[in-house]
Amino acid sequence: MTVFDAHFAAALQKRETAGTRRSLRPVTRETGAILRDGQRLIDVSSNDYLGLADHPLLRERAADWALRYGTGARASRLVCGTLDLHHAVEEKLARFKHCDAALLFASGWQANASVVPALCALSVAQTGHPMIVFSDRLNHASLHHGCAAAGVRQVRFRHNDLAHLETLLKREAATPGLRMIVTESVFSMDGDRADIPALRALADRYDAFLYVDEAHATGVLGPHGQGLSGGLADLTMGTCSKALGGMGAYIAGSRLLCDYLINHASGFIYSTALPPAVLGAIDAALDVIPGMDTERTTLLGQAETLRPLLNNAGFDTAESTTQIVPVLIGEAQRALDVATALESEGLLAVAIRPPTVPAGTARLRIALHAGLQDADIKRLAEAIIRLAGNEQ
Ligand code: PMP
């Protein structure tokens, strides 16, 4: 017993009543397959968009680097955890992103949650005033967390509404302090895209720094999977945990930016460096991703097949134009019920509920993979229509 137990229980009960209590349910994996409770499932929920987590080259290099260097980096980067491998992978990432430099972080969450405050601190140090952060309303929790950690007031613009953003930029034009626009390039829960060239133009017009989270675009969109921010963002953050099939994240930008972060980003400074196996997987992913145009075309083609099947049956898939296709259900418990029914038919299409998404917009978040067959897409659409369609 602890003195918090009654409070923990009350907080969980509140979630239970709202239908938003979460719990962990393990799966197991065999190459190319996912199983739960002994049942083989078609996975349309994980973010391994290109199937690289199963790729032999990634497995081999991860194993090889672990055998050669050991299982851990043993220290944080600034102490003695920076291996030659970190430098080699960072150089490769910088070439992949066509940037001067890149810096690895332990996760995407950690990168956003510590890089945003590091940048905000720059405004206070240099101007004596807080950073003015213009954020898309649907930005990932880690970006909001970064702003909260920095203690800055976010100026939130309506999702992908650049006219609204410009109104806010104008409104704040005389406010002292540096300014920064923060967006995702592909939104994780809606699968739509930000207009990066237009954001660049606004950033230039209002002297703002442009921060783009490419977690879901990296490996999937843009020339050779480089993402959508190519040469337009001042800072790109990307994860190695989704299409790259591994773990960790990077910041790409100028050498000056990376040097600043090495000195000021607490999540970089005070955390143990990524281990050799993870670096090996990232390194191999960067070797294979540029050559995967066929898989990228297949993946986006699957989404183009799925969306009209659902839309014609009356389902709302928001503004998705990518491999992420939300199927809006509305009420949290109903989304859960549909996901459970789909799973009993062998389809792993997880329900995403508030607070991850706004209230009333619980959904199935369909994340497609290049390895799915046309028949899988048709089976998925048919099952969703049959199991969720009667109350549309
Ligand atoms: N940004 C976005 C847009 C994401 O969707 C995620 C993952 N959910 C992250 C950052 C965090 O990345 P990671 O899982 O590598 O911590």
Structure description:
- The chain is 44% helix and 17% strand.
- With 392 residues, it is an alpha/beta fold.
- It has two domains: 20-50 and 292-391, Aspartate Aminotransferase, domain 1 (Alpha-Beta Complex), CATH 3.90.1150.10; 56-290, Aspartate Aminotransferase, domain 2 (3-Layer(aba) Sandwich).
- The strands form three sheets. Strands 4-10-9-8-7-5-6 form a seven-stranded mixed beta sheet, with helices on both faces.
- The chain is globular.
- The relative contact order is 0.16.
- Bound molecules: 4'-deoxy-4'-aminopyridoxal-5'-phosphate.
- Residues 107-109, 112, 140, 142, 184, 188, 213, 215, 239, 241, 249 line the site of 4'-deoxy-4'-aminopyridoxal-5'-phosphate.
- Residues 107-109, 112, 140, 142, 184, 188, 213, 215, 239, 241, 249 line the site of 4'-deoxy-4'-aminopyridoxal-5'-phosphate (PMP).
- Its cofactor is pyridoxal 5'-phosphate.
- It comes from Gluconobacter japonicus.
- Pfam families: Aminotran_1_2.
- Residues 41-384 form the Aminotransferase class I/classII large domain.
